[in-house]
Please model this.
Amino acid sequence: MEPPKVQQSGEGGLNVTLTIRLLMHGKEVGSIIGKKGETVKKMREEVSASGARINISEGNCPERIVTITGPTDAIFKAFAMIAYKFEEDIINSMSNSPATSKPPVTLRLVVPASQCGSLIGKGGSKIKEMRESTGAQVQVAGDMLPNSTERAVTISGAPEAIIQCVKQICVVMLESPPKGATIPYRPKPASTPVIFSGGQAYTIQGQYAIPHPDLTKLHQLAMQQTPFTPLGQTTPAFPAGLDASNQASTHELTIPNDLIGCIIGRQGTKINEIRQMSGAQIKIANAMEGSSERQITITGTPANISLAQYLINARFRDVAAMWNDPSSMTTS
Model:
């Protein structure tokens, strides 16, 4: 939530402009967008007259962020439209279901962790008060969302209860602004399964395997390369054929502490890229007191392991190149 802008309204009250973020699964986002974008277009038209905006994050992600910005009245109107749309979806899904009890509507807010204490209150008093006065169920996640300083706040109940609960949450958050910098949660793209066959790499899209020339080239290089000296290890021998072995195995590398940061990257971006591209599981041990090295454990098929090692070495090469040419340095 961004710092609110407060101005005097014509009725003598306070007209507060703020931003609220919602976390939604792909199916929920599809419901909000509607066929050919008709639903979200109608919502935007209704709230834009009040000065509000509804934005949906882009990307092929299993989760998306829906951002609502504007005066409080318009924000509550947008929440009402979303909540009633979800209730309509539930009712429609029950028409072909033997279930008799209607499940509640559920929305998830994304809130800076520094404000969650105020939402919970001393000894849970505030969240208990919100539950009792609105009839909605409210849960504040204990852990922060990945690579962020935000938590999910889940609200469940009837649309009317959810709207009242959101109003109370907004009041609390306006009274207790976030402390320090907030790192917003950004959903990661869905990882695409990768298979290797006959010297080629393929990504799985639906029921089809699509050739992936970039991964094929990386894999072929990985099969030819041996790790650089900084890794202090050698590649375990295995047949050159990509289909030779699908048995999962484990390989360990030792990396100096002062180089581990370039492998991990900011907020873990680089190590996550290596995991996704190689298909290997990669675990980095915690720093041991008195040790100048960290252990990396790579688990997967020989092809996965080899590709992961190649990508780690490629990362070392990139960083070394930046050190040799300071003008090319960028923040990673």
